[in-house]
């Protein structure tokens, strides 16, 4: 049974800041961290460990693939077919699970990243990073989550303050904004602690 303190971190696309947000959330909850699929190096689990001062439990990836690409392609290069049945949640308390890429990144010919939290009925936190085109990508992701009847805890903005962008997304989003992470020039444990104290749950 999934508790209210276990969350799946996904995003509107690749390089949206999921690892940074996962580190902040893990610190906020004093939670374990798990990235089920890592494609390429460096490993995101190593970055989370560094940002949190190696004080949290980091669970090993189910798949650590060599090619920095979509999981279905990276797995195919190694003669592997990923199945949803391959994944079992770590037996623990508070937990942050980081997805690979965006919601609709393929795991195989049939399944997508979104199918993992849906399988576990795990609350999703959607990272909406700010860039030209992010309104469209955010609203498409929000509509997709609504259509899949996903369990969504809220969204997190990541990037420079752009109220015109954020306000439009907020108007169309049925879930709360849990945090706003602005540009961090010197990423450190102190900045992680700063934002961890601002998470709204």
UniProtKB/TrEMBL annotation:
<comment type="subunit">
    <text>Homodimer.</text>
</comment>
<dbReference type="GO" id="GO:0009102">
    <property type="term" value="P:biotin biosynthetic process"/>
</dbReference>
<keyword id="KW-0547">Nucleotide-binding</keyword>
<dbReference type="GO" id="GO:0005829">
    <property type="term" value="C:cytosol"/>
</dbReference>
<dbReference type="GO" id="GO:0000287">
    <property type="term" value="F:magnesium ion binding"/>
</dbReference>
<comment type="function">
    <text>Catalyzes a mechanistically unusual reaction, the ATP-dependent insertion of CO2 between the N7 and N8 nitrogen atoms of 7,8-diaminopelargonic acid (DAPA, also called 7,8-diammoniononanoate) to form a ureido ring.</text>
</comment>
<dbReference type="InterPro" id="IPR004472">
    <property type="entry name" value="DTB_synth_BioD"/>
</dbReference>
<keyword id="KW-0067">ATP-binding</keyword>
<dbReference type="GO" id="GO:0004141">
    <property type="term" value="F:dethiobiotin synthase activity"/>
</dbReference>
<comment type="pathway">
    <text>Cofactor biosynthesis; biotin biosynthesis; biotin from 7,8-diaminononanoate: step 1/2.</text>
</comment>
<feature type="binding site">
    <location>
        <begin position="15"/>
        <end position="20"/>
    </location>
    <ligand>
        <name>ATP</name>
    </ligand>
</feature>
<keyword id="KW-0093">Biotin biosynthesis</keyword>
<keyword id="KW-0460">Magnesium</keyword>
<feature type="binding site">
    <location>
        <position position="19"/>
    </location>
    <ligand>
        <name>Mg(2+)</name>
    </ligand>
</feature>
<feature type="binding site">
    <location>
        <begin position="98"/>
        <end position="101"/>
    </location>
    <ligand>
        <name>ATP</name>
    </ligand>
</feature>
<keyword id="KW-0436">Ligase</keyword>
<dbReference type="Pfam" id="PF13500">
    <property type="entry name" value="AAA_26"/>
</dbReference>
<feature type="binding site">
    <location>
        <position position="44"/>
    </location>
    <ligand>
        <name>Mg(2+)</name>
    </ligand>
</feature>
<comment type="similarity">
    <text>Belongs to the dethiobiotin synthetase family.</text>
</comment>
<feature type="active site">
    <location>
        <position position="35"/>
    </location>
</feature>
<feature type="binding site">
    <location>
        <position position="98"/>
    </location>
    <ligand>
        <name>Mg(2+)</name>
    </ligand>
</feature>
<feature type="binding site">
    <location>
        <position position="44"/>
    </location>
    <ligand>
        <name>ATP</name>
    </ligand>
</feature>
<dbReference type="InterPro" id="IPR027417">
    <property type="entry name" value="P-loop_NTPase"/>
</dbReference>
<protein>
    <recommendedName>
        <fullName>ATP-dependent dethiobiotin synthetase BioD</fullName>
        <ecNumber>6.3.3.3</ecNumber>
    </recommendedName>
</protein>
<keyword id="KW-0479">Metal-binding</keyword>
<dbReference type="GO" id="GO:0005524">
    <property type="term" value="F:ATP binding"/>
</dbReference>
<keyword id="KW-0963">Cytoplasm</keyword>
